[in-house]
Amino acid sequence: MARADRACPSVAFNKAMITESELPASVLDFAAEAWKGKFAYAPTSGAFQAQIAAISIMKGRDAALAWLKGLKDFGVSYNSDSGAMLAVEKGEIPVALVNNYYWYSVARETGEDKMKSALHFIGHQDPGALIMVAAAGMLKSSKKQEAGQQFLAFMVSEEGQKAIAEATAEYPLRPGLVSPYGLKPFGELDPPPVTPSDIGDAEDALALAREAGLA
């Protein structure tokens, strides 16, 4: 198993529709009537499922379920993070919960200085500041073990990490490698003390989503 890069959930907001100071202190606060029709999320996103798991770990299963039910009642569901991100940029909705690199994907096409939206990072160890790690691994059943191991070694090498960092606005894992994107410094994200091993698979998160009527 090789860990290749890291991403952070963030709040994309349309600068003409809302100010950063109006955003709540916690991702949990979006599941409220005050945000009815103003907050977008993508329930099928793997990052969203990790978010559910983080809330369940930190606040308890009942809190995670209440959050999901609040989003169902007051939020606006999109099929993907990219769809939610574009909706914010176009002014269709003020706010969306997306991984940071979706904003940079749009900015790469539009130009950062022309973007109508911006990113807000919740921080202060809130579940909404979860760090997620992208990983790759080899199947024992593979007949290409040597080639697979060489590929994994390349992914975590300086050359491989540079290629990944240039292709997408995720945080490289290799020490000393700086992303060419203007990412918020990793040391300033202030994530919660929840690790990928804590989250595990998405089984319980999917069960909570189904219970809340989102899946």
**SSE string, helices as H and strands as E:** EEEHHEHEHEEHHEHH
N-to-C terminal Cα separation, in Å? 30 Å
Low-confidence stretches: none
CATH homologous superfamily caption: Periplasmic binding protein-like II
The tally of helices reads: 8
Helicity, in percent? 25-40%
Mean pLDDT: 91
Structure class:
alpha/beta
Shape: globular
Q: What composes the largest sheet?
A: 5 strands, mixed
Oligomer: single chain
Keywords: Periplasm, Signal
InterPro entries: SBP
Protein name: Extracellular solute-binding protein
Pfam families: SBP_bac_8
What would you say this structure looks like, in words?
- The protein contains 8 helices and 8 strands, in the order βββααβαβαββααβαα.
- It has helices at 46-59, 61-74, 81-89, 100-110, 145-155, 158-167, 196-199, 203-212, and strands at residues 2-7, 9-14, 39-41, 76-77, 95-99, 117-120, 132-136, 171-172.
- The mean pLDDT is 91.
- It is an alpha/beta fold.
- It is globular, with a radius of gyration of 18 Å.
- The longest helix has 14 residues, at 46-59.
- The strands form 2 sheets. Strands 4-3-5-2-6 form a 5-stranded mixed β-sheet, with helices on both faces. A 3-stranded antiparallel β-sheet has the order 7-1-8.
- Helix 1 packs across helix 8 and helix 2 packs across helix 8.
- The protein has one domain (2-212): D-Maltodextrin-Binding Protein, domain 2 (3-Layer(aba) Sandwich).
